UniProtKB/TrEMBL annotation:
It comes from Alkalimonas amylolytica. Pathway: Porphyrin-containing compound metabolism; protoheme biosynthesis. It comes from the Bacteria. It is a multi-pass membrane protein. This is Heme biosynthesis-associated TPR protein. NCBIfam families: TPR_hemY_coli.
Length: 363
């Protein structure tokens, strides 16, 4: 409404002043340095308006030229960032497709953009390592933040994959002491000790794993079987295991009495020729619920012909659980121990009927 009123007032003023200006245009005379400039007042006003407009356009043009380098720089930065982001996306796709060399090249190109630098270097390092470019992978990992637990994890993981588990364990020993609650580091530390065959040190770290909860409860149930059977049997064979040793007594009672630990002790006794004692340990400890997790380790125990009681126990379980493939697998292994190869074959066939995934464990 106000704008409409202003327009009406301007039109009214133009209608009133127009005839006056045309009838009496006025006169302006400018004399400067011998030059004389004469014009009407209307001409002077028009000249001032045009001059102001030209000055404004010139100032705007100069300002645009002044800002051109900065705008060009921002444009090229934007283009560079776009290319880096595109390289990152393509690099991730190549990584997922296990096209390691392409992934390494693309992920390194994506470093042109400052976002997620460490993550890009980690992925590029792994890709370069899997592509067989170990020096390049090590160079990328060295550029990561030194005090970042993720950096320590990658360094140790690559050492393990190169078969240098003992060096990885030495590296992680100090790092885990600095970051005892870093679950990923703790899990990798235990794995490196297993791969390096440092069984006593592995058992010594179990209290820390439990205290700082490196594994969830469900994970630890599985982890027990990956630790105790091989650790105990190996220490017994080397004459370094004793139930009175400090590292064994430092374990909680439920760990020392766990099925996984008993399997380790039975394995050790069987290797020492005490097969009857080994069988007795298994019969007194094993429960039906333990068979699935214990199966990969039970089948490695050389019980020989001392399997009668264990075989009776398995047959007893089968009366009420005839569809349990792991029981048939265990029965097959026991028959094989006694030299009954045909019975072992039939039981194994039955096991695969109910549990086809057992074919992988057999191979």
């Amino acid at each position: 409404m106000i704008r409409l009123l202003l327009i009406i007032l301007l039109l009214a003023a133009a209608m009133w002043l127009g005839p006056l200006v045309l009838a009496e245009p006025g006169y302006v005379r400018i004399v400067l340095a011998g030059y004389t400039l004469e014009m009407t007042v209307v001409g002077l006003v028009v000249l001032l308006i045009v001059s102001s407009l030209l000055l404004w356009l010139m100032a705007k043009l100069l300002r645009a030229l002044w800002r051109l380098p900065s705008r060009s720089w921002r444009f090229w930065q934007w283009r560079r960032r776009q290319k880096a982001q595109q390289a990152f996306q393509e690099g991730l796709r190549a990584f997922a497709r296990q096209q390691w060399q392409d992934a390494a090249n693309l992920l390194q190109q994506s470093l042109a953009h400052s976002q997620y630098q460490d993550e890009k270097r980690m992925l590029a390092g792994y890709a370069a390592f899997y592509a067989g470019q170990t020096p390049q992978a090590e160079q990328l990992i060295q550029q990561l933040a030194e005090q970042d637990p993720n950096t320590w994890f990658v360094q140790a993981d690559l050492l393990i994959q190169q078969g240098q588990a003992a060096q990885a364990a030495n590296l992680l020993q100090a790092k885990v002491a600095q970051q005892p609650k870093a679950c990923g580091l703790g899990q990798l530390y235990l794995f490196s000790l297993q791969q390096a065959g440092q069984w006593q040190q592995l058992l010594e770290q179990v209290p820390a794993a439990l205290k700082h909860r490196w594994f969830s409860k469900s994970q630890w149930v599985v982890q027990r079987y990956q630790i105790y059977p091989k650790a105990i049997s190996s220490l017994v064979q080397s004459g370094q295991f004793s139930e009175q040793s400090d590292y064994w007594q430092a374990l909680p009672g439920r760990e020392r009495k766990s099925v996984a630990a008993v399997i380790g002790r039975a394995w050790a006794k069987a290797n020492q020729g005490q097969t009857e004692q080994a069988e007795r340990l298994l019969v007194n400890t094993l429960a039906l619920a333990d068979i699935e997790l214990a199966w990969p380790y039970l089948r490695q125990i050389p019980l020989g012909k001392s399997v009668l009681q264990l075989r009776k126990q398995v047959q007893h379980w089968l009366r009420d659980h005839a569809g349990n493939g792991y029981l048939y697998a265990l029965l097959s292994w026991l028959a094989e121990q006694e030299g009954e190869l045909e019975q072992a074959r039939l039981s194994w066939k039955k096991a695969l009927q109910y549990q086809p995934e057992l074919a992988v464990s057999k191979s």
